[in-house]
Amino acid sequence: MSSRFAPRPTRTTVRGGETAVPTGVPRQATAARTRTWQPPYQLDLGLTLGPLRRGPGDPTFRTTPDGSVWRASRTPLGPGTLRVAARGGAVEAEAWGPGAPWLLDGLPALLGATDDPALFTPRHRLVATTAHRRPGLRLTRTGLVLESLIPSILEQKITTGEAYRAWRLLVRKYGEPAPGPTPAQARMYVMPDPRTWALIPSWEWHKAGVDNKRSSTILRAVARAARLEEAASMDPPQAQTRLELIPGIGPWTSAETVQRSNGAPDAVTVGDVHLPGIIGHALADNRDADDAAMLALLTPYEGQRHRAARLILLSGRTPPRRDPKMRKTNIALW
Length: 334
What we know:
Number of helices: 15
GO biological process, one term: base-excision repair, AP site formation
Protein name: 3-methyladenine DNA glycosylase
Region (Disordered): 1-34
GO molecular function: alkylated DNA binding; DNA-3-methyladenine glycosylase activity; DNA-7-methylguanine glycosylase activity
InterPro entries: Alkylbase_DNA_Glycosylase/TA, DNA_glycosylase
Distance between the termini: 31 Å
């Protein structure tokens, strides 16, 4: 898990609160499928789904002032749009497009039903305090690999702002409009299908600021899309092994992917620029910790290291800022 996604969408907690009614959403004539689901636990939609958003302008992910979360996804059945919102103690969902049935079937897993926080035992006061203050945190499981893998590849070795820009530009230009209504003033798009990714011209990658190494990795991945999507049903270590068979995909990228696609509680991100220092500072007052030191500090959380890392990030205990370790290198300006 990377230090960059402390989730920021509007938070909606399901615990018998008020009805959430979409505001400013144009109601088109498109028929929606609906589902109401009662989670058997306290659920914070913002914390649970926040890691799926790739920056504030992500065209596949939106939130509205009423706390609703919108996602546009490419499912095995085709493109679909999903809106989830708190309504009393339940979650009400609407979905549009060919992928609507698949999205609604996967709603419980998306909202953490396959996650089991009871397996987690805090070993540090900071972690215990944060877990107590964030009882609605669940680990999402999308069941979709490419939609997490491609933006993770884009985020390799560059600043998050540059990666978010590339994702935004490519999805808007080569994706397709999300089915059904979407929030007012916020057009949404479904990411391109594998064939469309494969046909993006080299100069368009360049204009989006994506170098040849990352674009080539994406092209190799989409050429094996079906095999990679199978990883969503595997145990996380097996899923990571399959992803890492693709040249250019290493432990950092595979962990970032299976955290979302598989809901992997132990897939700790190694190779991150900031995460070791954040965890080292929080648990041992060592802001210069490297991956080895980070993994040693997380040893008491074996099996739940990703959850521990998320709670540490949510604690707000981060080291004082230094000069950036990574410069912006927008190749589109070359």
